[in-house]
Amino acid sequence: MSTQTTSTSSSAPNVRPFGWKDKVGYMFGDFGNDFSFILQMLFFMVFYTDVMGIDAQIVGTLFLAARVVDAFTDVGMGRIVDVLKPSKHGRFRPWVLRMAIPVALASTMMYMPFVVNSSYGVRVTYMVITYIIWGSVFYTSINIPYGSMAAVISDQPEHRASLSVFRSIGAQLAFLIISAILPRVVNVDNQISGSRMAMAAIACSIAAVVCYVLCYSMVRERVIVHIKTHEEQASFGEMLSTLVHNRPLLALVSGALLFLVGSQIAGTTTAYLWKDYFHAFDMMSWAQIVSIAPVFLISVVATAASMRWGKKELLSYGLVLSAILAIAMWFMKITSPVLFIVLFFFLSIGVGFYNVIVWAVITDVLDYQEVQTGERDDGTIYAIYSWSRKLGQAVAGYIVGAAVSFVGYDSELAKAGLDQHPETLDGIYMLFLLVPGVLYALTAVIMWFWYPLNKEEVAKNFDTLQRRHGRGKYAKAPAAGAVPSAYDAGTVDPAAGDPTPGTPGPIDPDELK
Predict the structure, then answer these.
(1) What is the rounded CA–CA span in Å between residue 465 and residue 471?
(2) How far apart are CA 52 and CA 312, in angstroms?
(3) Which label site among 172, 337, 375, 482 has the fewest CB atoms less than 10 Å from its CB?
């Protein structure tokens, strides 16, 4: 039996050129992801504290414990997509379709108020089971292949930068819909309605499935990974050992961990900020619309800007801007919702640059790994990065859960519709601004001083791989009469046929569209 860890790759023949269809299709993938992920980020904790009556610290502990599970499921899923030979539809793309309905159903179940009147233990158990099934099993099984797929849609830096931009657009569209519409849907007299939350979750899940189907239909994989024999492969342990010495990956993971802790703390406390601090839950929708507006503006220039000035450079400058504004707004102790929203627009510009460009940065890290080691374990490396993001979100969830309890948030007062204590409100304001601001600054330091892949290094690695694989200006003319195949080693994906090993895999006419 042979499995894949690669030292060479090539371009897939008989597949239409990279274009707008791929960009928009890839956008729909994260659009679908975030119909469940953003829903969880903004409403999971407040649903379980205010509707289900569970202590915030217990919810935060769940976030942290689930990431321990994810350490195994994320990397395990990465190895699965690295090891299985591709089907005629590609290596990563089929998983988007396979797991669309399971992840949508699992997301819906988290917000069903079936056990709201049951014992405290039953409510906690229901929360734990549904969250683990959604996040550690089904979301992992679709997000790891989807994220890894960017590296095989195209090997061109400008194409990958544009995919990163469109992925961010998809995420922000979901964020816009959920944050702008759902507060108005689930809010009844400044409180979360359990029945309305359930209906909102069902609607989001249906939308997610539609987006996943569109992603699968529109995207094509073009970079073909050649298969090594079992004897030629690096072992899993050897592969992990090389990653320990992958400085760009370590820096990116460390930065992502801090950034995600900061942004997740802000995201998780958003509902509390507007519901309790400003007493203007309905204005949360406007605040969220304004906060994501910079992303759409950035998306117009992000690809050109990153090619001109470098991705590392743009990320670092943007994070410094956001850090300065967040800390300044905390010192100002703003009580006017309108003034807060105006300043938050400018704070969101720096964060927006990070969110738009970071997905192209991970493809640079994948290229660096191949340049240094000759191995290309896209699924596993992306899984490690994805897990670091989840860990950051979990640490943030735990911190928020513990911190919200520490500053005195009373879920019984919330259920009764009563005001929180003034010290609690000040604590919520601090969690939303000061803590993320400090973490954004630390992330900027890591990206500038530790992460080594500046504009020049990225260009050098790209040229090295083009020369190594005979692509671009190094391409050789095909031999007369040669008939290219889509996949050099056939397919043994469970959902595909199983031709004789070593023979060309089948070509799907739809791939030409």
Answers:
(1) 8
(2) 43
(3) 482
